[in-house]
Fold:
Amino acid sequence: MAKKPKKQSQSGGTPATVALIAAGTEFSVHAYEHDPASASYGEEAAEALGVSPDRVFKTLVADVDGRLTVAVVPVAGSLDLKALATAAGGKRATMADPAAAERTTGYVRGGISPLGQRKRLPTVLDASARSHPTICVSAGRRGLEVELSPTDLATLTDATFAPIARN
Structure:
């Protein structure tokens, strides 16, 4: 994993990469050609990058008792909404309206990053992330991933770790 890029201009990156550079966090950027016909953005990323689907995490936005909440889970599994509600201190969780998720985060569906969001949302990172030295998450657009340590991701997003994924 490389240290942050040497002279990437802040205007040339996504809000996610700009946030990583500003924080001085170690990360790598991985680009691939996005296929608009792909059924799953996350599985497409794992395959294109040659990375295990257990190490590529998707960013989902849910509504927990009326409050938008970010869930970061492996693309190999799915989000357990009941577990997310519990982890977020709520009673009920449903998937957020896609338009509300895009408007609040500033990213498009399939490219929502847990980093550099327009409005910082409560974030829960699946506990399985801790079993990997690095994980990949969206860098803020389809076809672009960032690789970083799960601890750095949790620190930068004020995330809590909890078992919120099911296989």
